[in-house]
């Protein structure tokens, strides 16, 4: 059996749904797209992981010859209704960039170990354009919503890859869009119009991006500020957003399938609430937030901010006491967005809370948010 076949069979034995092989040649088209879209993607171009350089693997690893593309189907179990619309499915599945001490991270580590034992040198620290890799390796096609799709599964997949110094047997590329002709369901459904043309996304308008990438200290001038017009359209999404995948006809079969429960998610969902996230304890953070949402956010205040936005968008006066409590949080970011949420809910009680807190607040940004909320009432 050839090394290529051994690699593919081992990957399938580990549970990967698809595995393909492509060359380590430059991803010229992806580089051109990043450069063409300018300010929309400058945060990615300036990312310290050097994604643009990763588009040319042989510059970072001169001996590179092949890339192994792996597809993990993360929709093999059901997702609790209590978490849908709040936490994206890929995060609930705990399979995206999973650490090596968790099951989904250990699977990738086992794959790496196998390839190394087979005599291949493996590239380290190469940030690859995974969707381009997978399509060139023949295991996925593109969707108009900018996601990769695996035949028979849909877009609920996680892509990972391994660069090696060995020339393997290459698969036929599937660099094509597999969507039904004329379908624009994802474009019409996007609340913020982040998908402005087929396969064209403005990430700065994307709900998921605004939920987890808007943090102080990020590249390209990003900060913790989320524009009010985006906040109002985020709904209850606190980490990720699946809207453009939920409306996609290519995902209909999987979304309608009767799948077994994920017992861990069932337990989490029974104890999960937006109010608990807003005023969360260390225990809630460690047992209910981090196990699912470890990917992009490391500071609890950003989760609290997102929870405040979600509660504001629900518009239920029953949440005013929780938001009033958040107005005492030591993090000014939490107080700022709790004030916005109170203004979003409105009513006499919310007004009373805001007026009381205005006289006590010392942070300028929080005061501005209080004033804006009161002005809108």
UniProtKB/TrEMBL annotation:
Cited Pfam families: Fer4_16 (PF13484), HEAT_2 (PF13646)
Keywords for the protein's UniProt record, in alphabetical order: 4Fe-4S, Iron, Iron-sulfur, Metal-binding
GO annotation, biological process: tRNA queuosine(34) biosynthetic process
Domain 4Fe-4S ferredoxin-type stretches: 171-200
Molecular function via GO: 4 iron, 4 sulfur cluster binding; epoxyqueuosine reductase activity
Signal peptide: none
Biological source species: Pelosinus propionicus DSM 13327
Protein's name in the database: Epoxyqueuosine reductase
PANTHER family assigned to the protein according to its UniProt record, in alphabetical order: EPOXYQUEUOSINE REDUCTASE (PTHR30002)
């Amino acid at each position: 059996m050839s090394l290529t076949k051994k690699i593919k069979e081992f990957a399938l034995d580990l549970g990967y749904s698809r595995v393909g092989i492509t060359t380590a040649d430059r991803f010229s088209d992806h580089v051109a797209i990043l450069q063409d879209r300018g300010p929309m993607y400058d945060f990615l171009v300036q990312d310290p992981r050097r994604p643009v350089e990763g588009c040319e693997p042989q510059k970072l690893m001169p001996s590179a010859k092949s890339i192994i593309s792996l597809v993990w189907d993360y929709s093999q179990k059901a997702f609790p209704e209590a978490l849908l619309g709040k936490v994206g499915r890929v995060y609930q599945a705990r399979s995206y960039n999973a650490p090596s001490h968790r099951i989904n991270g250990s699977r990738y580590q086992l794959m790496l170990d196998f390839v190394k034992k087979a005599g291949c040198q493996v590239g380290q620290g190469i940030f690859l354009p995974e969707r381009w890799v997978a399509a060139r390796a023949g295991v996925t096609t593109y969707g108009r919503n900018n996601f990769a799709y695996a035949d028979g599964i849909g877009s609920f997949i996680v892509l990972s890859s391994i660069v090696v110094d060995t020339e393997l047997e290459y698969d036929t590329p599937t660099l094509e869009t597999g969507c039904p002709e004329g379908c624009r369901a994802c474009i019409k459904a996007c609340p913020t119009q982040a998908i402005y043309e087929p396969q064209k996304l403005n990430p700065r308008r994307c709900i998921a991006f605004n939920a987890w990438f808007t943090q102080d200290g990020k590249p390209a001038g990003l900060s913790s500020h989320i524009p009010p017009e985006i906040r109002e359209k985020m709904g209850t999404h606190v980490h990720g957003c699946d809207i453009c995948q939920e409306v996609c006809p290519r995902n209909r079969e999987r979304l309608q399938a009767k799948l077994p429960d994920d017992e861990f998610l069932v337990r989490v969902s029974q104890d999960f609430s937006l109010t608990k996230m807003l005023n969360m304890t260390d225990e809630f953070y460690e047992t209910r937030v981090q196990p699912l949402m470890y990917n992009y956010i490391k500071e609890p205040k950003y989760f609290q901010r997102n929870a405040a936005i979600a509660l504001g968008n629900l518009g239920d006066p029953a949440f005013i006491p929780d938001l009033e409590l958040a107005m005492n949080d030591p993090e000014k970011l939490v107080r700022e967005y709790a004030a916005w949420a109170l203004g979003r809910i409105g009513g006499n009680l919310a007004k009373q809370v805001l007026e009381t807190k205005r006289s006590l607040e010392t942070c300028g940004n929080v005061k501005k948010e209080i004033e804006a909320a009161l002005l809108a009432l």
